[in-house]
Amino acid sequence: MSERVRDAGFDDWLDAVAEGEGYYLRCPNEHGSFPPRRACPHCGSQDLTDVPLPETGVVETFTVVHVPTPDFTEDCPYATAVVDFGDARLTGQLTGVALEDVEVGMSVEPSVAETETTGDRILVFGEH
Amino acid sequence: MFAEAGLAALADAGVDGDDVESLFYGNFMGELSEHQGHEAPLMAEMLGLDAPATRFESACASSGVAVREGVKNVRNGEADVIVVGGAERMNNLGTAGATESLAIAADDLYEVRAGMTFPGAYALMARAYFEEYGGSREDLAAVAVKNHANAVNNEHAQFQREITVEEALDAPMIAEPLGLYDACPITDGAAAVVLVSEEYAREHGLDAPVAITGTGQGGDKMALQDRDYLARTPAAEKAAAEAYAEADIEASDVELAEVHDCFTIAEVLALEALGLYSHGEAIGAAARGETTRDGSLPINLSGGLKAKGHPVGATGTSQIVEMTRLLRGDHPNSDVVSDARVGVCHNAGGTVASTTVHVLEVMDR
Fold first, then answer.
1. pLDDT by residue (tens digit) across B46-105?
2. CA-closest candidate to residue B265, choices B98, B130, B164
3. Taking the C-alpha atoms of B229, B230, B234 and B237 in order, what is their torsion angle to the nearest 10 degrees?
4. A71 with A127, same domain?
5. Domain count within chain A
6. H/E/C letters for each residue in A55-106?
7. Residue B162 CA, distance from chain mean position
8. Do A12 and A37 lie in a common domain?
9. How are beta strands B256-258 and B342-349 bridged, if at all?
10. Assuming Cys at both sites, which of A11, A93, A108, B45 could form a disulfide with A125, CB separation 3.0 to 4.6 Å?
11. 3-state secondary structure of B144
12. What ranges do the domains of chain B cover?
């Protein structure tokens, strides 16, 4: 079995999130983004520093997916959410919450899990 | 498929293939669905053209971008005759394969690997819209019902049949709150237009009553998470502003539009971005009957992506074809817009990270 080739920046970032040391990139104009980047996507500043990701974020919107891509057939149905961490947002799967209990505004914390279908690493959010 | 569309376009235009100076061709997933990259020269060959050909890829806006580049080339004098079109084959991939292939138009690292599908992305936008402005699944169902009704007489539509609000609401969920009838189908299709300069049309005595008088393009961040808005599409606002300025029109001058309703919520977002409604107001437009064929502002008289179908790389051109026929009077639905002179086409790629807007007008002769 071949292992997925690591994606520079992204996999290092996932490692950090898995260890509870998640971070984001912040420019002097206080725009947040995630690696790999050399320029702020909002203003073009190349002065990006790693800043610790807040422990919790808030669900801004979510969906429950019933028709997945082949890589997620055994994970289905699942909830995908966009979570607001203040200066930046992240997209991931909600875990440990019944699908009918997911709501906009709920407080969640990020971590890393493996998908049921492929065992690939995935960003997840658990209820705080 | 592309030959069928392209040869029909040349015949309709009355243009000799020898006069064609370029083919601009839109295609999104040829590598995945047909194991064929570099499709443009092959498509020129299929039309019997001896002309350079270039493929444009901008996800679902691939041929909208091709149209725009064609217009710019004709306008700046680079060319007098350009064939613009697009084609996509998707059904051979099956639902899972098509879902996977469409998903590559989203951000791979931060969206697709989190399990986001394309319907999922628009579902995230739909819920964000409901949270910010209100609205319901019934409002969205009215959009699907309207577009299906518009397609009944369109011989080029994939679904020439009506549906009811109840059918739409009872259909299986794809990505909540979007169900099967909120989503456009998987489509095989092709479209083509012939763009000519005013000079060429005059010299060759062509009957070309409709002109593209404005073109605009806008962009946004690739991933939803990096956007300023989840319930608005600023890329389309920018494209519309540019196209309207070029055509010297206001949003209030627009009498009909073909918009990119890949999902029902996308039509709502498009109408607001085009300035045809203010933010939060377009959600009820179809249910109120304003955007139906008998309404004050008919939208997607072709049936839209929902019922006409969405052959991804062909859609932007297909909208121009439908609008041209609607305005010049030979479309099955032309009778409801017989006095209209100004129409707009809105083509969006990804979750509206790429958008083109074109203004089409009936010319005085």
1. 999 999 999 999 999 999 999 999 999 999 999 999 999 999 999 999 999 999 999 999
2. B130
3. -130
4. yes
5. 2
6. CCEEEEEEEEECCCCHHHHHHCCEEEEEEECCCCEEEEEEECCCHHHCCCCC
7. 21
8. yes
9. parallel
10. A108
11. helix
12. 2-362
| B288 φ, ψ (degrees, to nearest 5) | -80, -10
Interface of A with B (CB under 8 A): 7, 10, 33-34, 41-42, 60-73, 75, 78, 80, 82, 88-93, 104, 115, 120, 122-123
CB contact under 8 A, A80 and B95: no
Question: Nearest CA of chain A to the CA of B60: how many Å?
Answer: 18
Contacts of A92 in chain B (CB under 8 A): 114
Nearest to B114 among A7, A64, A92 (CB): A92
Size of interface A-B (CB pairs under 8 A): 103
Q: Which structural domain range is residue A81 located in?
A: 54-128
- This complex has an ipTM of 0.96
Q: With beta carbons less than 8 A apart as the criterion, state whether B20 and B208 touch.
A: no
Helices B118-133 and B264-273 sit at what angle, rounded to 10 degrees? Answer: 60
Instruction: Please name the amino acid found at residue A65.
Output: V
Please answer yes or no on whether B175 and A71 come within 8 Å at the CB atom: no
Interface test mutation site (partner B, options A7, A24, A58, A82, max chain B beta carbons within 10 A):
A82
Could you please state the CATH topology (level 3) that the domain comprising B2-362 is classified under.
Peroxisomal Thiolase; Chain A, domain 1 (3.40.47)
Nearest CB partner across the interface for B127, out of A10, A42, A62: A62
List active site positions of B: 60, 310
Using the structure block, give the residue that is written with the tokens 């243009």.
B15
Helix, strand, coil percentages (3-state) for chain B, rounded to 5, are: 45, 20, 40
Q: Read off the DSSP letter of residue B263.
A: B
- For the four alpha carbons of B104, B107, B110 and B115, in that order, the dihedral sign comes to negative
Q: B35-46, pLDDT tens digit by residue?
A: 999 999 999 999
How far is it, in rounded angstroms, from Cα B117 to Cα A118?
Answer: 16
pLDDT band at B364 (very low <50, low <70, confident <90, very high): confident
Question: Could you tell me the pTM of the whole model?
Answer: 0.97
Inspect the interface and report whether the beta carbons of B117 and A65 lie closer than 8 Å: yes
Residue type, B87: A
Chain A residues in contact with B225 (beta carbon < 8 A): 82, 88-91
Q: Cβ A63–B124 below 8 Å, yes or no?
A: yes
CATH number at residue A121: 2.40.50
The shortest CB-CB distance from B175 to any of A42, A66, A115 is to: A66
